[in-house]
Structure formats: structure tokens, C-alpha cells
Amino acid sequence: MRYLQCLAVIALLGMGGASPAAAAADADRITCFSLGNESYKDKAKFDSGHAACTRMIKSGRFKDKALASIYRARGSWNQKKGDLDASLADYAISIRIEPDNVEGYDYRADVYQQKGDLDRALAEYDQASRLNPTYAAAYFSRGQIYEKKGDTAKARVEYNAAIAVPTKDRIAQWAQDNARARLKALAEEKPEQPKN
């Protein structure tokens, strides 16, 4: 009886404890995809987030959508680190693997916008909204670009389009909240006085 109890305890411990390799893989997953939490704001954690994603890619265990999401995550870490060309390369791989995922185009557009290539950014946001016409972030981001270009009429149209789509998630809510704020700010701006 004591022998059976000992075997039961060993079996339970074996099921409950993860192997060191599995624990490391889980830690990499958590670190790679920690973009939405405080690690994303802490420059000291950018390298570890990037390295975790790289280990996951090199492991060869991930395919298709899972691999595309890892490349998007690493692209975001590259972008946070200021390596915009590496970020664009990761987003391109993600899009090649999963061409119907709106986030790849949205994230790549953000990098083009950051680089000052507003026309390419617009084209990427256009592709994102073609893939998902209810993706409010694309409309909001296009509005930002039109504001930068000095075309406040088009910016207003885009901000209103962001608000008009159904709110599905926190990204849509973020885009709509920011679109409302920009519309309010534009309404409060005084029109330029003609110069004499």
C-alpha cells in the first residue's frame, strides 16, 4: 500500500511540475508577448522581449498564424528599440505568412509614419481597412496623417469614420476615444486669420 501511495505522489509531482525546457518556453512566450503591459514602457526590458521572440522563432516549433504573431511581436520590440528597418522586415515576414491579418499592415504603417513616409503609411492603413472595414484604428491613424499633411477636412472624415464603426475591442475603443479627442481639438482651434 505504501508503495502505491509513493507511486501516486511521484505521478502527481510529475504532472504538476513542468520540465525546465517547458518552463523556459513558457517564460519566453510571456516575455515575448508582454507588449501590452508595463514591460513595453521599460527600456530595460526591450532587449529581453526581443530575445524571447527570437528564441521562439529559432525554436522551429511555431508555424502559420502563431509564427506570424511572434514576428509581429518582435517587430514591435524592434520598433520600441528604434530599429525601424528590422521592424519593417519582421512585419513583412508576418504579412507574408499571414496576409489577411490586419495588424501586420497596421503595425507596418505605424513604422512608416514614424519614419516620415506618410504616403506609404496611408497605403498600409488603406490595406488594413480593406481587410477589415470595421478596424477603427486604421481610420484614426489616417486622420492623424491627414492632420500632419494639413488637410483637416479629410482628417475629420477619418475620425468620424473611426467613431462610426462598431466597437469590438479595446483597440477600437482606444481609436474612437482618440478620434473624439482630435475632433474636439480641431473644433476648438481658431481658424487662421488671413494675412494682410
Task: Give your account of this protein's structure.
Mean pLDDT is 84; it is low at 1-17. This protein has helices at 2-16, 20-32, 46-59, 64-81, 84-97, 102-115, 118-131, 136-148, 152-164, 170-188. Helix 4 packs antiparallel against helix 5 (84-97), helix 4 packs parallel to helix 6 (102-115) and helix 7 (118-131) packs antiparallel against helix 8 (136-148). With 196 residues, it is an all-alpha fold.
Q: Care to give the gist of this entry?
A:
With 196 residues, the chain is mainly alpha-helical.
Tags for this entry?
mainly alpha, 0% strand
What's the N-to-C terminus distance?
102 Å
Radius of gyration: 22 Å
Whole-number mean pLDDT: 84
Structural class: mainly alpha
Q: Uncertain runs with pLDDT below 50, 5 residues or more?
A: 1-17
| Major sheet details | none
| Strand elements, count | 0
Report the order of strands and helices.
HHHHHHHHHH
Fraction of helical residues: over 70%
Q: If helices are DSSP runs of H or I spanning 4 or more residues, what is the number of helices?
A: 10
Tell me the overall shape: elongated
Residue share in β-strands: under 5%
